[in-house]
Amino acid sequence: MYSNIVIPLAFDEDHNPDAALNIARALAAPGARVTLLHVMADVPGFAISYMPEGYASDLKRTLQGELDKLAAEFENGAGVIRQGHAANEILDMAAEIGADCIVIASHRPGYGDYLIGSTAARVVRHAPCSVMVMR
Predict the structure, then answer these.
(1) Of 107, 100, 109, nearest to 131 (Cα)?
(2) Radius of gyration of the chain (CA)
(3) 3-class DSSP state for residue 110?
(4) Is beta strand 76-83 parallel, antiparallel or unpaired with respect to 28-40?
């Protein structure tokens, strides 16, 4: 059983968080700390001028609300949003909070993933703790 779990979540139509949350419940020790993490990619400077005013803050507020709702399902759950490169932010968060497990979803790899590696593959290679990869 793990006492400090990080669950990176992507909010898009290809990812359903239920499987990751269920696995975390099964792996969590009683009273475990569970951190749900969403990483927002950096928006290139040229693209910012095309976004409506307040778009980024509205999006962040909406995502935080969803993370908080999902985190409330755990006794010691928390939702965190970070900005940057997904794999780096996941690894940094795990190291900062002393996580002993990361539960991460993986997609079916495409040709490009074999050359540059998916987020899950990078997390597995460099994680300071156990990693449960879901297919």
Answers:
(1) 100
(2) 15
(3) coil
(4) parallel
How far is the first Cα of the chain from the last one, in angstroms, to the nearest whole number? 21
User: pLDDT (tens digit, 9 = 90+) per residue, 39-53?
Assistant: 998 878 777 778 888
pTM: 0.89
Nearest to 82 by CA among 42, 34, 135: 42
Q: Where are the alpha helices (DSSP H) in the chain?
A: 18-27, 45-48, 55-71, 86-97, 111-116, 119-126
- Cα 32 to Cα 2, 6, 79, 116, 128: the distances in Å are 7, 11, 14, 34, 18
What distance separates the 2 farthest-apart alpha carbons in the chain? Answer: 47
Residue of 83, 70, 90 whose CA lies nearest to 25: 70
What is the reported pLDDT for 115? 46
